[in-house]
């Protein structure tokens, strides 16, 4: 890009302007955290915001849905990334019909065009390993003393709870930060961003369509202000560079096919976010709502264009319409407790009607991937196949014409999942991510209407453990821990119709590392 190119601060100002136009704000006494993904081009001075999200909440383990109809983790960074996944999948359909200025098709795979960079913005330091010293520098002295005096032994290969043992580096941490909140299976945003530096942001479904990982080149972070202690700025930069990718350096293979460690450049911005905690007030509480927006939505039933009318990707050049960042060019939803705001508990169970389901939920993204397979490759995702099987199996989409176009040919595991095992499998750097030793809490029937706030937060306020029950039988506890571990696929047994495959099938087919749960 030339010398007149916009600065990072200019890009962040555009993101803030888009957020303001969406007009989904927290209550006056509440703050929000904002994150966004955007693209820059070496051939243009403009940028393309592809997704935006706010949020500080995640669902406790005892309230996780098992049909993919709700978002487990509604932290801003995660919501924005899931919006980016949706934009990437939708862009393959748009590319087929009208061409794309951002991606191009090479043989039967896609890739981002030459000169396109993916960048990420977060309005504050991501929770977890990147923010421990940043938070310690600004916390109440009394709380700091209590934290320092309550050091607990950390067992190698396990996750730390929130801010426990915050003096330790390179430790996987679960959300939320508060010890009085119900436990979750959600890893911190620092851990998730670090995993994207190895796997890319495109997810398992995007990995089937693209050549290798799609990586974040730069992360711009707010609230680390130049007017503050210079040494603290240096410390936070070191922590972010380490926590968001650097801690994996030298621990992963350098020849793992299409995947490699791509550490993002870390930069700070002084541009204030209007609803940040610093602006609203340090005594404010976090908003219960999560905003999610992604650009360039496609109509629900757009038929694929005939081959003779398709535009060549190489002949398409991005114009102003494709660079425009406007709310009207995208889809916005507001979530609370992982569900769409305003949807009653009764309607949440209507899985066939997509208007009741968050567009960034697992079920919605599975349906979008199924549409991409059908529209772009002529391949059907069978209803006998679960979300977990669809994302972990190797789908040779380029071979769909060799036999029956309605049959999805699979091999045992995808290259993406192999790379994931290298990151999270036994003795891997992030092996604790798929650790079997989870809290033995399972859902039980509750009189809850689903409207109360039971989510865990990175903010303030104690949440009720509504709907949670402890198991007393040791055998049942072990059974549940093995079945409901993060890598088991227990939470991904639903199919494209939102139907739950039988538990007996799950018991037989769900693989954890190199053994089958019995």
Helices, strands, pairings?
Layout: H1 8-22, E1 30-31, E2 34-41, E3 47-54, E4 56-58, E5 73-75, H2 76-98, E6 103-106, E7 109-112, E8 116-122, H3 132-138, H4 141-149, E9 160-161, E10 173-174, H5 189-199, H6 203-209, E11 216-221, H7 230-243, E12 265-268, H8 277-280, E13 285-286, E14 289-295, H9 320-323, E15 330-336, E16 339-340, H10 345-348, H11 362-377, H12 387-392, E17 394-395, E18 410-411, H13 415-424, E19 441-443, E20 456-457, E21 468-470, H14 474-483, H15 503-509, E22 511-512, E23 515-516
Parallel strand pairs: 1-13, 8-11, 9-10, 11-12
Antiparallel strand pairs: 2-3, 2-8, 3-14, 4-5, 4-20, 6-7, 14-15, 15-16, 17-18, 19-21, 22-23
Helix pairs in contact: 2-11, 3-7
Percent range for helical residues?
Answer: 25-40%
Structural class: alpha+beta
Instruction: Note the beta-strand portion.
Output: 15-25%
Overall pLDDT metric:
79
Strand order of the largest sheet: 12-11-8-2-3-14-15-16
User: How many structural units, i.e. domains?
Assistant: 1
Task: List segments where confidence is low: pLDDT < 50 over at least 5 consecutive residues.
Answer: 145-155, 305-323, 400-411, 437-452, 459-471, 506-518
Q: Mind summarizing the main beta sheet?
A: 8 strands, mixed
Count of beta strands: 23
Can you tell me the overall shape?
globular
Distance N terminus to C terminus? 56 Å
How large is the radius of gyration? Answer: 22 Å
DSSP helix count? 15
InterPro entries: A_deamin
Protein name: A to I editase domain-containing protein
Pfam family, one: A_deamin
Organism: Lentinula lateritia
């Amino acid at each position: 890009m030339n010398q007149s190119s916009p600065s990072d601060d200019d890009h962040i100002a555009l993101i803030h302007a888009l957020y303001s136009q969406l007009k989904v704000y927290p209550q006056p006494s509440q703050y929000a955290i904002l994150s966004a993904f955007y693209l820059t081009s070496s051939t243009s001075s403009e940028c393309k915001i592809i997704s935006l999200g706010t949020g500080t909440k995640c669902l406790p383990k005892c309230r996780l849905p098992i049909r993919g109809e709700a978002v487990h983790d509604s932290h801003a960074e995660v919501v924005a990334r899931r919006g980016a996944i949706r934009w990437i999948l939708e862009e393959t359909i748009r590319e087929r019909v009208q061409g794309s200025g951002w991606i191009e098709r090479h043989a039967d795979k896609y890739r981002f065009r030459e000169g396109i960079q993916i960048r990420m913005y977060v309005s504050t330091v991501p929770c977890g390993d990147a923010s421990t010293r940043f938070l310690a520098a600004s916390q109440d002295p009394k709380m700091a003393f209590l934290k320092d005096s309550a050091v607990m032994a950390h067992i190698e290969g396990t996750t730390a709870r929130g801010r426990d043992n915050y003096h330790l580096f390179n430790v996987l941490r679960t959300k939320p930060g508060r010890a009085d909140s119900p436990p979750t299976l959600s890893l911190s945003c620092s851990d998730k961003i670090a995993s994207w530096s190895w796997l890319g942001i495109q997810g398992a479904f995007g990995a089937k369509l693209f050549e290798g990982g799609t990586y974040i080149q730069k992360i711009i972070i707010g609230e680390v202000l130049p007017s503050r202690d210079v040494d603290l700025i240096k410390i936070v930069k070191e922590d972010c560079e380490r926590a968001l990718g650097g801690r994996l350096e030298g621990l992963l293979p350098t020849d793992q096919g299409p995947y490699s460690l791509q550490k993002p450049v870390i930069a700070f911005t002084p541009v204030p976010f209007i609803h940040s905690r610093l602006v609203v007030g340090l005594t404010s509480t976090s908003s219960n709502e999560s905003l999610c927006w992604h650009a360039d939505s496609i109509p629900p039933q757009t038929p694929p264009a005939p081959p003779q009318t398709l535009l060549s990707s190489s002949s398409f050049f991005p114009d102003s319409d494709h660079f425009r960042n406007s709310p009207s060019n995208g889809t916005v939803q507001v979530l609370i407790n992982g569900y769409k705001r305003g949807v009653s508990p009764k309607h949440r169970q209507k899985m066939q009607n997509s208007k009741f389901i968050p567009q960034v939920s697992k079920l919605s993204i599975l349906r979008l991937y199924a549409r991409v397979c059908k529209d772009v490759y002529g391949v059907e995702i069978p209803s006998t196949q679960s979300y977990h099987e669809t994302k972990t199996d190797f789908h040779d989409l380029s071979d769909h014409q060799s036999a029956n176009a309605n049959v999805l040919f699979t091999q045992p595991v995808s290259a993406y999942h192999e790379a994931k095992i290298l990151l999270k499998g036994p003795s891997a750097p992030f092996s604790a991510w798929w650790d079997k030793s989870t809290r033995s809490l399972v859902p039980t029937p509750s009189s809850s209407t689903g409207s109360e706030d039971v989510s865990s937060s990175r903010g303030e306020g104690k949440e009720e453990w509504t709907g949670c029950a402890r198991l007393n039988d040791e055998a049942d506890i072990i059974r549940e821990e093995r079945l409901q571990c993060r890598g088991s696929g227990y939470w991904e047994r639903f199919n494209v119709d939102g139907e739950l495959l039988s538990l007996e099938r799950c018991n037989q087919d769900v693989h954890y590392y190199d053994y089958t749960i019995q």
